[in-house]
Amino acid sequence: MSLNEVPQNNGQGLRKVNGRPKIVVPEGSPSRNSDSASFTLEGDTSLNDDLLSISGSVTPRARRSSRMSLDSITPRRSFDSRTLSVANSRSFGFENETHSGSMDFSPLGNNSIYEIVMNTRRKNWLNYPTVADIPQVSLSKNDLDDHWKTHVREYVENIKSEYQIFQSTNNIRNMNQTEQLKELRDGENMNEELFEENIKQGDPGLISSVPNFYFSDDFQLDNPRTFHKVLDAIDLFLTKPDMKVQTRRDEAFFELRDKLTDYLDIVETLLVTEISKSSHKFFHALSEVDSIQKRAYDTLSKLEELAQNIKIIDGDNINKKISHLEMIFKRKNVEKLEQGLLQAKLVLNKTDECSIMYKENKFDNCLELIKSIDHLIKGDDSVNKDVQNWTRSWPYKLSNLKTIPSLSTTREFLTNMKIEIGGKFSLQLSNLLIDDLRSFCQSIEPNETLYRIQTGSNDKKQTIFTDKFSSEIGELIVKLNRCEELTSAFDLYREKSIMELKSVIKIHLPTENIHSDNKDVIVNTHDEKQPNNGSTSGSKLSRLIKEQTPAEFQSMLLKIFTHALEALRRLYGHQKLLLDISLNELASVKSPNENQHNMITQLDIRTGINEIIRIIQLRTGKIIAVRRELNLSLRYDYFLKFYAICVLFIQECEVLSGEFLTKYLSNVLASQIKYYASAQSSKNYRNIKKKIDAEEWVPYIVDPSIQSDVNDIVSSIDIDPLSWTAILDMTGNFSVHENDISDTSSGKRKNEGDEASQGHRKSVVVGDKTFVASSSLLAAIEVIKELMALSINLPSIYLSNFEKLCYDMLQYYNNSAMASVTQPGNSLLKTGRNLSIMGESLDCLAEFVIIVQRFYQRLSNSSRDFEPFDPSHYTSLLEQYQASSNKIYTANAPPLPA
């Protein structure tokens, strides 16, 4: 058989026919047309046949149209033949069954339904597509047979032989290309001329029949001009969608399709021709690949052997060098160990030096040495000059000895020493501040403190410090910061300041005088140490407080409060000074640690000052509570001074601290006022009853001070009298005399009987009215003045109590006076007394009823907490007084003329 014979396919892969190797085409390969199924090339065939067969067997291409793929066809008998059957011809892109797959028309790919519904191609349609235009899509069912795995295995067994043939022909490297080429060239003595003749079988001139615009780089089918060129005057009747011209449309379509198919065949034929010219060179190059690959394998084997030899040689050299380096490292490690031992020894020696300095009280030098030893233990010689000088000649970097157990005792010793030094510095700081606190309080008199508080002046003395004092404080704070004991020093000062302020109360408490060996020994009861009988000491102190006179007790409170207030002022000055110096010191540290930042919030001694205020108020409240019953007998003006002292202290504490820290002292004072107001009722009744029982109803000498009090009572209807408001004024010399224990008028004035010879007037002027005075009338006026003065100076919540006291006292006076001269039959006694004097007294007090009503009415206008008596009460009281006056007048009236 000649070279031009067609290869035969017997299903067994590559075989020889008449001594020539042939490439087998698998059975069932589709042919180009109906004639090509059993067609055999006539005459000469070229190498293109073999190439096409190989290509078809290696890479078969899936076909979606009726046109056969180039890879699975054999050349036609004549390239000039353009006769194609309609049934097997290729369908053009305008056919409904095919789609371009372009994403420009359908984002779903080949989806004709989307293209029709969305009208992406034929946008010139007048109407939207109908249901008839949309092809029905039959969806496959997902039901699988239960025995689908068995069917798959059977199908695999059936196609196993064919798959083996495909594998053997799919990879061109599996073929013996070298032998095939030799048989192609030597077996048939094929000459070069015949080979060239077969190649020239395709006529390159046919390409000229294809229009040039198909080969343009900017060929765009969607361009209307290009599209009209492609149609080449063929009318597809696209503007007439009716079925009348369907036949003509199909004929035009097939004509256009056949013409384009011919153009495509011409191009493919030309490509096959050009590829075939170089096919023999391709097989030749392929045959050389195996040779090159074999030589590459040999080269790699030799390189691997060479690498092994080099590795052995290098391993010996490297092992020698490693052993040498190990010796060097070992020697350096020994040297480092020796240096570490020297470093530990130096730590111990410097620790001994530090201990000696501590015993010699060289705290500054000791503290600096401790700092250097700490750096030496840490192995840090970057910042400390002492460590640098000690280890300047050492060859290696210092080691960190903190984890060495043998030095834990030394480190603990240094830490304790630093704590003890810090404690000594803390004690020095506290003593210095306490001494300044004492000297400041001693330099200010109580009257000066009272004047400053009541006038509202702020002399800023508490923030004035000498330069020497500030310098000493600054040096101690620097030292405390170095030994990291600044916070504990401030805590110590807080505790000491609390103890110092506690002692302020102790030093002013009453003492007991013990006569022993003709000497008066003063013993502080509160300093007696009685661990087994503490209650006895407390009871003794309570007894001494109760034994104090009102003057002594109020003087004691005054001294405690003024001393404590000045101490608190100085403490706030200390707070500002300590904060300023300590914060500046912390800010000057180059590398502050986290503890220093957290320390800032602990340097404020305000919490200690607030605690002092609470303690002082608590203890003074307890002291006042001891004398609660005794304070009930105080005269009104001295009770108001006692009230003023306590209120001034409470208010000043609130001003200094900026907050109300405790209610204890305020509650004690409120309770004292409540009991004092309650006690006034029985006391007033008792005094009025005593005066009326002893009353002889004779004119009584009126002291000028009594008339002045009457004038104040009358003026109180419109304004608070200055003499009453001045009672709370603490700016003058405050003193209480021992004879002022009770609130009787004898404590303020001398006996009126002693003054009878002075010739004073015997009447009381109330406004524009004059009344003859009696002893009981003056006592009642004194009570009214006291109650009004208390009403003005005490909190407004007690106004209702004092108004009731005034009302009850006036009513009681009327009832008691009339009862003293009334017979059981409700007629006046003929006692020989001057009842007109009684009538004058009752008429005078009737004027005071109106004054009292108007006084409390005025106070109610400025107080929301007070609601005065209903005017009907006072009207009823005036009627009682009027009835009593009428009865007295009737009894004293002369008989009618006969």
Automatic annotation (TrEMBL):
GO MF term set: syntaxin binding
Principal subcellular localization: Golgi
Alphabetized, the UniProt keywords read: Coiled coil, Golgi apparatus, Protein transport, Transport
Which stretches does UniProt call biased (Polar residues)?
1-12, 30-42
- Where in the cell is the protein located? Golgi apparatus, trans-Golgi network
The ranges of region (Disordered) come to: 1-42, 739-759
| A Gene Ontology term for the protein's cellular component | GARP complex
Report whether Membrane shows up as a keyword of the record.
no
Q: Does the keyword Cell division apply?
A: no
Q: Which family does it belong to?
A: Belongs to the VPS54 family.
Q: What is this protein identified as?
A: Vacuolar protein sorting-associated protein 54
Protein species of origin: Saccharomyces mikatae IFO 1815
Identify the gene encoding this protein.
SMKI04G2520
